[in-house]
């Protein structure tokens, strides 16, 4: 059926054509390939996968290119695709103890089983711009040794031997792991759902909240118990086979914060934990997440509620950058019907105000005349 | 009945075109609940094993899935063919607890447990309640009942046959619990009537 | 990479069937409990949150091949977001579309209710940004949920009364709260309060979708929808001093169009279909023929 439309359609189509032009830029410069983005802008790809909550480097790179480098736009593109994908099943929990570790550091022990591995880090680089990177300089192959296979105990397990850190806790047998992309959110949240929300949450927002706790807004005395980055196996149970099969490997960053805790009415003095886990390599996000996770456990641990980072409803309701950007940016849409209503009201209130002022002045004049 | 026969009937009789059949059945169910008492007829888009009727089979195929727990009355739960068909075509888990049920399907309305024994929702979440789908003999030919409430312009008269005993007393109790309470879909071969928890039912026309 | 092939295929009306079932179940609950906000697991849509994702999900879940869809924003069929949403459904559902209110079986709207009285069998789908009418009085969901549970709406009355005390009248002009069937206080979405009376005992089914806030609610046909007010300050709708400059209609909602930088302005129907229909019928406003061209 034909619809007469007066401009909207043409304007939209022209705008999108211009966007495509700007995205491509100078045609004499070669177009970026997806492979280049995956290989050379890997941390951007990782953040898009993490906050887009879909592990697929090529799609994340495509989204990054399509979004002209706008991270939140790229995350949004990936999310909108993710939501259309059928669910075949839920994986078993990944075991980061069995991670093929590329980086692993602990700030709480000088040395520990499995050792400290610096890995590919910006830490200790001097932040001096490197003019050589303007070209395609030959880069030497890195030093490597054969991977140690097997279990590398986490710092939490080491502390647990002394009983000085809270345990993992047991979920009830009938607990189904939450999935906020499939079920409506409800406050207070269970910790699993909250961790999912944090893992998808905006890096900048979580960074700022974590920072606020360090500056005294709900101080939680954190130590970076351990940060590890590497590949883990993803397994799913196949009921027909009766055992789990591996469907692939993913790279993740895990951070366990260890927090001093004086004890409260319920739990005894001990170390408590905050947990962070994100796709790819993103230490900043994993650390922020683990600090915010710990701070959000204030109610559970009987701590005083004094700061924004302890407020679950506030933090979780505002951590999703796709939601936030949509609603902030929706102010661009026409609001002239409501504005007309407000205009009418303000005009009316203004004329009432002016009438009162005039009345008061007249009264004043009369008083003066009478004196 | 042999196991073979059970299986073949379980695999057959689903929607021929799940996307469009589901949409059209949903619109009928939605209209039925938005316009209580108004009879909506729909074609038998499914062929479930007896005693489940096609109308109810179609509603099940439209609304049930692995996120919804289903309670079947004894007549249906004892019937392997029916349970097998529902499981195959909807993947919905069955429950024996009326209080856990998202949907309850009753082939024998006369033996209906009290409405209060189903999930009522909470005052905060009144939506977490059971929807009952009750097979009755016919949508017409019974005693006249007069319906009023949201969705009804002035009043609506229905005369369903084969309602559970003490249904009106049960329904009055259900209504008094608003916003908690159950919603009911009465189903017969010729169509359905929706009774959302808001509707007031009195004897007479 | 076979991504392109995958990305090119979508289910009818975009949403997968499992998502539709989930939304359909929420719609049925919403109809059974008029004015109550049913939580649902809103999906990411290919348009941003805040741009109609709730309305789009509701429409996608009820829409069938026999429907005729109309999409309006600010009352107009030709505003960019209305054009965009209409094009979306044409693409993913190949559905018939119209600008005529009377011809549509489903109307998705942002900020207006059409002037033409809706009929039995029609469905009006509202895009809702903030579904909670108490949200600006109490930001916490945990608290507002309790208030609805206990039917504790005193805070809302206090707020409206404070307006009266301060200004002599209620200073809410849009998203004006209503009470549905004497029980739930409901946000009618940011429609001007001018449109509130149209909701009362409407023949059409009214469905509300809030995607970002993950809520669906409904008003069945012939349901009482009463704007909150006080005996000494009864609810009033906006009144315009002049008729539509193009079609001469009175008692309709008007947009103020600025004509030049010397303060020249005209008032025209916000409902473009209503205005065009009247002009086709021969009604003429005092400035007809001087309408500014829509910007390209």
Give a quick precis of the structure.
Chain B: Keywords: Lyase. Helices cover 41% and strands 14% of the residues of chain A.
Question: How would you explain this protein's 3D organization?
Answer:
The complex is a heterotrimer of chains A (371), B (205) and C (296). Chain A is an alpha+beta fold and 371 residues long. Chain A contains 13 helices and four strands. Chain A has helices at 8-24, 34-40, 42-52, 57-66, 71-82, 155-160, 191-200, 203-214, 283-295, 298-301, 312-317, 321-329, 336-370, and strands at 100-105, 222-238, 243-261, 270-279. In chain A, strand 2 and strand 3 form a beta hairpin. The radius of gyration of chain A is 27 Å and the shape is globular. Chain B starts with a helix and ends with a strand. Chain B is of the alpha/beta class and 205 residues long. Chain B has a five-stranded mixed beta sheet with strand order 1-2-3-6-7. The relative contact order of chain B is 0.18. The longest helix of chain B has 17 residues, at 18-34. In chain B, helix 2 (18-34) crosses helix 3. Chain B has a single domain, classed as Bacterial phosphonate metabolism protein PhnH (Rossmann fold, 3-Layer(aba) Sandwich), CATH 3.40.50.11310. Chain B is globular. Chain B has helices spanning 3-11, 18-34, 54-63, 74-77, 80-90, 167-176; strands at residues 70-72, 103-106, 131-135, 145-148, 156-158, 183-188, 191-195, 200-203. Chain C has two domains: 3-227, Rossmann fold (3-Layer(aba) Sandwich); 239-291, no CATH class. In chain C, strands 1-9-8-5-4-2-3 form a seven-stranded mixed beta sheet. In chain C, strands 7-6-10 form a three-stranded antiparallel beta sheet. In chain C, strands 11-12 form a two-stranded antiparallel sheet. In chain C, strand 8 (205-210) and strand 9 form a beta hairpin. The longest helix of chain C has 16 residues, at 17-32. Residues 1-8 and 291-296 of chain C have low confidence and may be disordered. Classes of the chains: A alpha+beta (371), B alpha/beta (205), C alpha/beta (296). Chains A and C meet through helix 1, helix 4, helix 5, helix 12 and helix 13 of A and helix 4, strand 3 and strand 11 of C. Chain B: It comes from Hoeflea poritis. Chain B: InterPro entries: PhnH-like_sp, Phosphonate_metab_PhnH. Chain B: Pfam families: PhnH (PF05845).
């Amino acid at each position: 059926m034909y619809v007469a439309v007066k401009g909207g359609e043409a304007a939209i189509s022209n705008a999108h054509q211009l966007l495509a032009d700007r995205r491509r830029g100078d045609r004499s410069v070669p177009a970026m390939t997806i492979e280049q983005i995956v290989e050379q802008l890997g941390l951007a790809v990782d953040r898009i996968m993490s906050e887009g909550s879909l592990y697929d480097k090529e799609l994340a790179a495509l989204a990054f290119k399509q979004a002209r480098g706008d991270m939140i736009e790229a995350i949004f593109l990936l999310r909108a695709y993710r939501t259309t994908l059928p669910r075949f099943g839920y994986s078993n929990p990944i075991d980061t103890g069995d991670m093929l570790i590329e980086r692993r550091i602990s700030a709480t022990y000088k040395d520990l089983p499995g050792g400290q591995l610096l890995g590919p880090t910006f830490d200790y680089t001097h932040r001096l711009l490197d003019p050589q990177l303007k070209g395609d300089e030959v880069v030497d192959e890195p030093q490597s040794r054969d991977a140690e296979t097997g279990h590398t105990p986490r710092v939490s397990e080491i502390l647990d031997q002394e009983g000085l850190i809270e345990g993992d806790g047991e979920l009830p047998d009938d607990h189904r792991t939450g999935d906020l992309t499939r079920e409506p959110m409800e406050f207070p949240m269970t910790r699993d759902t909250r961790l999912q929300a944090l893992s998808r949450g905006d890096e900048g927002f979580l960074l700022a909240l974590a920072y606020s706790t360090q500056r005294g807004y709900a101080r939680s005395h954190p130590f970076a118990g351990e940060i590890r980055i590497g590949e883990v196996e993803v397994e799913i149970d196949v009921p027909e086979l009766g055992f789990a099969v591996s469907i692939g490997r993913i790279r993740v960053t895990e951070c366990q914060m260890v927090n001093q805790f004086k004890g409260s009415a319920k739990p005894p003095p001990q170390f408590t934990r905050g947990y962070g886990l994100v796709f790819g390599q993103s230490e900043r996000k994993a650390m922020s997440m683990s600090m915010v996770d710990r701070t959000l456990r204030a109610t559970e641990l009987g701590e005083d509620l004094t700061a924004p980072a302890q407020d679950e409803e506030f933090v979780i309701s505002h951590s999703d950058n796709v939601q936030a950007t949509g609603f902030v940016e929706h102010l661009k849409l026409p609001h002239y019907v409501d504005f007309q209503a407000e205009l009418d009201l303000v005009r009316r209130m203004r004329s009432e105000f002016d009438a009162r002022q005039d009345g008061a002045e007249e009264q004043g004049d009369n008083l003066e005349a009478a004196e | 009945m042999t196991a073979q026969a059970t299986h073949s009937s379980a695999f057959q009789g689903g929607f021929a075109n799940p996307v469009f059949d589901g949409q059209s059945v949903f619109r009928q169910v939605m209209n039925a609940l938005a316009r209580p008492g108004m009879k909506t007829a729909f074609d038998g888009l499914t062929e479930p094993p007896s005693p489940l009727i096609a109308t109810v089979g179609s509603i099940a195929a439209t609304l049930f899935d692995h996120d919804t727990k289903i309670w079947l009355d004894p007549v249906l739960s004892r019937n392997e063919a029916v349970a097998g068909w529902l499981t195959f075509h909807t993947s919905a888990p069955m429950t024996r607890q009326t209080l856990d049920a998202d949907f309850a399907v009753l082939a024998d309305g006369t033996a209906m447990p009290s409405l209060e024994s189903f999930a009522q929702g909470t005052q905060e979440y009144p939506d977490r309640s059971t929807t009952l789908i009750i097979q009755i003999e016919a949508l017409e030919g019974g005693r006249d009942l007069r319906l009023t409430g949201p969705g009804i312009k002035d009043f609506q008269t229905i005369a369903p046959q084969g309602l559970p005993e003490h249904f009106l007393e049960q329904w009055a109790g259900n209504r008094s619990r608003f916003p908690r309470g159950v919603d009911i879909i009465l189903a017969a071969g010729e169509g359905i009537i929706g009774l959302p928890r808001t509707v007031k039912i009195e004897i007479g026309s | 990479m076979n991504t392109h092939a995958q990305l090119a295929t979508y289910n009818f009306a975009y949403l997968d069937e499992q998502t539709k079932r989930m939304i359909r179940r929420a719609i049925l609950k919403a109809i059974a409990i008029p004015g109550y906000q049913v939580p649902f697991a809103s999906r990411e849509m290919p348009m941003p949150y805040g741009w109609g994702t709730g309305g789009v999900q509701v429409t996608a879940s009820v829409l069938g091949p026999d429907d005729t869809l109309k999409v309006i924003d600010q009352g107009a069929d030709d505003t960019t977001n209305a054009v965009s949403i209409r094009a979306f459904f044409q693409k993913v559902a190949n559905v018939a579309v119209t600008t005529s209110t009377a011809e549509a079986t489903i109307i998705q709207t942002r900020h207006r209710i059409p002037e033409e009285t809706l009929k039995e069998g029609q469905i009006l789908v509202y895009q809702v940004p903030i579904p909670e009418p108490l949200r600006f009085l109490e930001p916490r969901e945990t608290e507002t949920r309790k208030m609805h549970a206990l039917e504790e709406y005193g805070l809302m009355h206090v707020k409206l009364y404070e307006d009266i005390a301060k200004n002599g009248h209620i200073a809410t002009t849009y998203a004006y709260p209503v009470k549905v069937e004497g029980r739930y206080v409901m946000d009618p979405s940011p429609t001007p309060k001018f449109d509130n009376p149209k909701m009362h005992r409407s023949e059409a089914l009214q469905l509300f979708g809030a995607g970002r806030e993950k809520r669906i609610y409904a008003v069945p046909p012939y349901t009482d929808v009463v704007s909150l007010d006080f005996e000494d300050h009864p609810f009033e709708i906006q009144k315009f001093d002049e008729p539509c400059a193009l079609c001469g209609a009175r008692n309709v909602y008007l947009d103020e169009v600025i004509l030049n930088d010397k303060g020249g302005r005209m008032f025209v129907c916000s409902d473009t279909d209503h205005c065009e229909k009247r002009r086709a019928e021969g009604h003429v406003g005092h400035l007809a023929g001087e309408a500014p061209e829509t910007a390209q």
